[in-house]
Amino acid sequence: MTSPHATGWRPTRLGGAEPGTGVTRYRLDSGRPGPRLLVLGGVHGNEIGGIVGAGRVTLTHWPLVAGRLDVVPITHEAANLAFIRTGPADGRDLARTFPGDPHGEPTEQLAALVREELINDCDALIDLHTSAVDADLPDFAGSLHDHTPYGDACRALALDFGMATVWGHPDLAPGRTVSAAADRKVPAMYVESRRGGVLDATMLDRYTDGVVRVAEGLGIMAPGTAPAGEPLRRLLHGNGDTDSFTAAPVDGYFLAHVEMLAAVRQGETVGSVVDRRGATLTEVIAPQDGTVVFLRRLAPVTAGTPLVSVCTEIPLPAPLESEPPLKGDAR
Q1: Residue 114 in contact with residue 100, Cβ under 8 Å?
Q2: Under 8 Å CB-to-CB from 177, ≥6 apart: which residues?
Q3: What is the pLDDT of residues 36-67, one digit of tens each?
Q4: Cis peptide upstream of residue 287 (ω within 30 degrees of 0)
Q5: What is the pTM of this model?
Q6: Domains, the chain, ranges and CATH?
Q7: What is the pLDDT of residues 146-204, one digit of tens each?
Q8: What is the DSSP letter of 326?
Q9: 112: closest CA among 186, 18, 22?
């Protein structure tokens, strides 16, 4: 007899009814024991690609074979309504606030709710982000990659997602959903894409299909439910904390001298800060050899604004250089 929980998605309100005080969780349950996968969108309220990408997952009654799938399309509702990155009531960034505080400011209370009701009740986490509206990151799946068994489990999720670029981090900055998951040793990954604040059909397909591929890898869905992912083309390794990227030393206008994913050498000029007449106020120098993985998009900057980041690119293993990986081989 089929469990009633397996017939379709069931929305449940967690926390308060007012935006920013709670979340709406959509659950699809197989009615059988198995892994519990949690998908979050809208941790930043203006990253609409992650919101719609997560929401589209809930439009299909996927054929689960085990476990369950929980999706929260809009994690920070108040920020989304204002279409800003942070909480309108307190200016806090939800993605810097975990584990939160149930008695703190509104964003702290929301972080505590998400941690307690969602992250503490899952076996794997996907957090769907996009670039911010004022800066660009490449399209990639990211995770911890510290060569521990836990880091390997996080890396497996990122590889299963099926994006051409995978970025591994030697450690995780505090305050993130993925660091909250790491506190419980729940494997976790996140996704970023270019062009924050807009919708792109190809990116949305990547997000929806990627979630399904991770569910396949966990055994929640049967292999082949989603189309094969992109061939792995680039492995990156380095700090992914945007708060620590090379910042503007003065106010002015940022002019990039390189393209996203360009190979650069330490000491190379990768950009400059100019005044209104175009006179150079300061040059922006690559801090190391590597690949450009972050570029400021909007020209106006103030001292301290992140401008550029460069991280190490790891050579692909020989089989991946010569042919695309077979589905399921990434692990």
Answers
A1: yes
A2: 40, 43, 95, 98, 114, 119, 125, 127, 188, 190
A3: 999 999 999 999 999 999 999 999 999 999 99
A4: no
A5: 0.91
A6: 4-237 (3.40.630.10), 245-313 (2.40.50.100)
A7: 999 999 999 999 999 999 999 999 999 999 999 999 999 999 999 999 988 899 999 99
A8: P
A9: 22
